[in-house]
Design brief:
four-stranded antiparallel sheet; alpha+beta; globular; 91 residues
Length: 91
């Protein structure tokens, strides 16, 4: 991951804190896509279509993603024996 793709947690103001009250690094769309194993264009399409509830922050024309939100998205969409955390699997 390039330094330009990551905003250091110490520069994030209170308005960008995640719900857990911990500071999470913001990743560019490209870095977030790499983290999830999808194309950056896929994340852009999800944001436009609303297909997945994956929060992002608009900073100018850039979409930034909190790493904690990406981790929550992965957990929510994990499959165990045909069930997901979303439809009945309790972790």
């Amino acid at each position: 991951m390039l330094a330009s793709e990551l905003i250091h947690p110490n520069v994030i103001t209170n308005q960008f804190r995640s719900t857990s009250d911990t500071v999470s690094p913001l990743l560019t769309r490209k870095a977030a896509a790499k983290y999830l194993g999808v194309a950056a264009q896929t994340l852009a399409q999800w944001a436009v279509s609303g297909r997945y509830n994956l929060p992002y922050i608009s900073i100018g024309r850039r979409a930034m993603y909190r790493q904690t939100d990406l981790d929550a998205f992965i957990t929510k969409n994990a499959h165990v024996d045909g069930l997901t955390a979303h439809n009945g699997w309790n972790q």
